[in-house]
């Protein structure tokens, strides 16, 4: 927030909205709970002018106030809130009439949910145990009848377990979302650093060529020239060495260009086709490669990681085992993609020994890890080498794995199954003066039926359709129990409460079942089983009593069971389906974001490869070819000149690649004016002509434009020079006149390499004019 005299202070709308929403989330529920409790008791008795004890009212209001304040802090300090709510409820329950605080008693359940959602498992279990013990102790003072005491304690245990389990599920869900956010942040970081990392990797590759090939040619040729009078035989040796090393240089550079151009960014292409194209490139370089590909529909990071691992493994085989047989195998199994690359021993000398950065294995492991997989590599008994990677098949595999962890039989599933089994039985245990008592045998039979009915719910998230089938299968036992009068009427009424398990199964199918568009059939299936069970019960009852079963009565009874069940099941199914849509939408958005960032990183890295490959072809490879030609023709001076030009072009290219992002920013096109002023101050006649203002340029073009002008003006000419910058809608044209030293030799080779590296073109006039075209959109 900022304040300017005479004006209203500016408000951060987003921060204000977050603050308001935070207050509502914390205090709305406690306020509603307090209002509901006050309205129910003592509100209703006071409105009806019934006598109430002032002490009891004071105790109820005090307990409500304490519990409300504590509930407001449940999100920040749930354990502390629970420590206040327990004594407050104890005071209210003991000091007020029975059933007075029927709304406030949910305060401890709500707070326990917050404990589960915001604190570790050990704290949640400890809090749950404390509440169960507290419930058992307070129940001694509240319930005089043993059956009532046991029934209420059992219900309390089930409710506490359910609240803790749901809280734990919420905590795992939030943790999975934080993990997804971290993955997205890492993917975004990788995307931003993709160009830098690829430049650094390619710089190491090119440095090996420069250090082991071009430099040695320059040193050898220079020594031969210097000692020509004393040792004339060195010239022939230098020419032979230059011809041999020049061919090695060309071969190494061609391999690098082939590898750099091997990646195709066709988002809809299949991995198998891309691998085949990559293999064809290596076969053309003389490496025998066979493939066994069994992949279909692999995309995202797994696809890119597999491609990169195969490419790196083939490159290593070409470097260290040229001529050795290589086999590339890809197959899908158990939701993962297995990549296997094996190569035999070399059959020809390694022409490019020493080429590489030494980080190939580490890079492959990083690729596998970035896709959530693993990689193993090591020597084979026959002297070859083996690389094996196991990758999840999709970008969201780690997200789905984290979500799948939530779908195990967790505490919430146990509590739900326990509630579905025990709550109907508790109705038989609790004393009801209008219903006869249930004997021990009937209670035991009802308990076993309810346990079998609810047991499948433990796997409601893993196999929802199977769970629904198991729940409905046990429902088929009820007609026999009712028809043969194995249980008294009281027990049968309690068994009817077992319909809750059927509703939970319907919800599970809606939330987790596949295919999604057919989950609505769970409602009809459950309603049909309920109706058929009722029809069977009526049939058995009528047959046993010797009375005919009237079709009209059966139809009415069937409708009376099926229609109400559908009325209950429809909102339950809808709630589960909406929860599913929300959950899948969140995961899908995270998946798309990670995939987009990963694709962006791959695209940026690919663009770097293409720019560097263009630079190699435009300048370095051309000069390397001239080295070989001159050596074969016996022209040592031309060998030295071409080698120096190639080395200058290579080093200039390396200078671009090795820009350290941690150092201060590089000068850009906007600094060309400053450069010209500095040269004029030093006595050089330099004019700058810019017809149009400079637009925003891509970083690579912006820096290269300055470096091109700087190199051209600093090539060694002392005459007047003129620089013209022409900015077009999609390009930048740089014309420098009066710089003949920059239009030939090593300087021109280096400039061509720099320009070609960012997709530009350069033409020169021997009279001293240099014309450079650079794309302003890369």
Question: What features would you describe in this structure?
Answer:
By secondary structure, the protein is α+β, with helices and mostly antiparallel strands. The protein has a domain at 664-775: 2-Layer Sandwich (Heat Shock Protein 90), CATH 3.30.565.10. It contains 23 helices and ten strands. Strand 2 and strand 3 (336-343) form a beta hairpin. Mean pLDDT is 79; it is low at 1-8, 263-269, 351-358, 395-408 and 660-664.
Which secondary structure elements does this structure contain, and how are they paired or packed?
Blueprint: H1 13-47, H2 54-72, H3 78-95, H4 107-118, H5 121-142, H6 146-226, H7 233-260, H8 271-284, E1 289-294, H9 301-320, E2 326-333, E3 336-343, H10 360-370, E4 374-379, E5 385-392, H11 397-406, H12 411-429, H13 440-454, H14 464-475, H15 477-483, H16 489-496, H17 499-512, H18 521-544, H19 551-633, H20 636-657, H21 672-681, E6 686-689, H22 699-713, E7 721-727, E8 731-737, H23 745-757, E9 761-765, E10 769-775
Parallel strand pairs: 1-2, 6-7
Antiparallel strand pairs: 2-3, 3-5, 4-5, 7-8, 8-10, 9-10
Helix pairs in contact: 1-2, 2-3, 3-4, 3-5, 4-5, 4-6, 5-6, 6-7, 6-11, 6-12, 6-19, 6-20, 7-19, 8-9, 9-10, 12-13, 12-16, 13-14, 14-17, 14-18, 15-18, 17-19, 18-19, 19-20, 19-23, 20-23, 22-23
């Amino acid at each position: 927030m900022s304040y300017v005299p005479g004006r209203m202070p500016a408000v951060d709308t987003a921060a204000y909205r977050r603050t308001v929403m935070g207050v509502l989330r914390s205090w709305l529920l406690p306020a509603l709970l307090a209002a509901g409790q006050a309205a129910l008791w003592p509100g209703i008795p006071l409105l009806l002018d019934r006598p109430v004890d002032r002490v009891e009212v004071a105790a109820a209001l005090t307990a409500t106030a304490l519990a409300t304040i504590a509930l407001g802090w449940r999100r920040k300090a749930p354990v502390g809130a629970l420590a206040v709510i327990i004594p407050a409820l104890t005071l209210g329950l003991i000091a007020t009439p029975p059933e007075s605080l029927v709304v406030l008693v949910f305060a401890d359940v709500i707070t326990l949910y917050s404990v589960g959602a915001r604190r570790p498992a050990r704290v949640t279990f400890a809090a749950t145990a404390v509440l169960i013990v507290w419930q058992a102790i307070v129940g001694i003072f509240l319930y005089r009848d043993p059956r009532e005491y046991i029934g209420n304690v059992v219900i309390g245990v089930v409710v506490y377990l359910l609240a803790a389990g749901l809280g734990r599920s919420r905590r795992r869900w939030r943790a999975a979302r934080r993990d997804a956010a971290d993955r997205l942040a890492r993917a975004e970081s990788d995307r931003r650093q993709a160009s830098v990392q690829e430049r650094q990797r390619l710089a190491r590759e090119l440095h090996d060529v420069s250090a082991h090939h071009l430099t040695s040619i320059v040193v050898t040729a220079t020594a031969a020239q210097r000692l020509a009078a004393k040792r004339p035989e060195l010239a022939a040796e230098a020419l032979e060495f230059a011809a041999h090393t020049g061919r090695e240089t060309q071969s190494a550079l061609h391999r690098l260009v082939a590898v750099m151009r091997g990646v195709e960014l066709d988002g809809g292409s299949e991995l198998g086709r891309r691998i085949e194209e990559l293999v064809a490139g290596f076969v053309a370089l003389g490496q025998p490669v066979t493939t066994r590909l069994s992949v279909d529909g692999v995309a995202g990071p797994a696809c890119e990681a597999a491609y990169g691992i195969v490419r790196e493994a083939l490159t290593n085989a070409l470097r260290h085992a040229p001529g050795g047989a290589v086999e590339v195998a890809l197959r899908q199994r158990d939701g993962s993609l297995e990549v296997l690359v094996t190569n035999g021993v070399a059959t020809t000398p390694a022409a490019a020994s020493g080429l590489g950065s030494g980080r190939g294995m580490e890079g492959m492991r990083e690729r596998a890890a970035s896709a959530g997989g693993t990689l193993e590599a090591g020597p084979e008994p026959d002297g070859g080498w083996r690389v094996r990677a196991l990758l999840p098949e999709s970008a969201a595999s780690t997200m789905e794995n984290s979500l799948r962890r939530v779908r195990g039989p967790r505490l919430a599933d146990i509590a739900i199954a326990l509630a579905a089994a025990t709550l109907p039985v508790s109705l038989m245990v609790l004393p009801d003066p209008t219903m006869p008592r249930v004997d021990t045998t009937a209670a035991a039979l009802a308990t076993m039926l309810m346990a079998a009915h609810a047991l499948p719910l433990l796997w409601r998230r893993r196999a929802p359709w199977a769970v629904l089938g198991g729940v409905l299968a046990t429902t088929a036992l009820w007609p026999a129990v009712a028809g043969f009068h194995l249980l008294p009427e009281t027990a049968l009424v309690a068994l009817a409460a077992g319909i809750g398990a059927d509703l939970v199964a319907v919800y599970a199918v809606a939330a987790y079942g596949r295919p999604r568009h057919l989950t609505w059939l769970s409602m009809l299936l459950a309603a049909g089983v309920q109706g058929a069970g009722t029809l069977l019960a009526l049939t058995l009852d009528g047959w046993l009593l010797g009375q005919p079963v009237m079709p009209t009565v059966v139809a009415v009874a069937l409708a009376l069971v099926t229609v109400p069940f559908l009325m209950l099941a429809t909102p339950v199914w809808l709630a589960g389906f909406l929860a599913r849509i929300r959950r899948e939408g969140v995961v899908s958005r995270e998946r798309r974001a990670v995939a987009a960032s990963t694709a962006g990183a791959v695209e940026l890295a690919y663009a770097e490869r293409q720019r560097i490959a263009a630079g190699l072809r435009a300048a370095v490879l051309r000069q390397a070819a001239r080295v070989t030609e001159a050596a074969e023709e016996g022209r040592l001076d031309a060998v030295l000149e071409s080698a120096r030009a190639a080395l200058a072009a290579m080093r200039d290219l390396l200078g671009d690649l090795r820009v350290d992002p941690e150092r201060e920013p590089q000068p850009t096109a906007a600094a060309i004016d400053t450069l010209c002023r500095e040269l004029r101050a030093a006595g050089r006649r330099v004019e700058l002509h810019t017809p149009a203002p400079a637009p925003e340029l891509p970083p690579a073009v912006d820096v290269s434009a300055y470096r091109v002008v700087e190199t051209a003006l600093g090539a060694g000419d002392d005459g007047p020079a003129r620089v013209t910058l022409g900015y077009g809608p999609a390009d930048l044209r740089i014309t420098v006149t009066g710089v003949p030293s920059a239009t030939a030799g090593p300087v021109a080779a280096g400039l061509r390499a720099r320009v070609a590296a960012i997709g530009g073109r350069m033409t020169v006039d021997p009279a001293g004019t240099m014309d450079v075209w650079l794309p302003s959109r890369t």
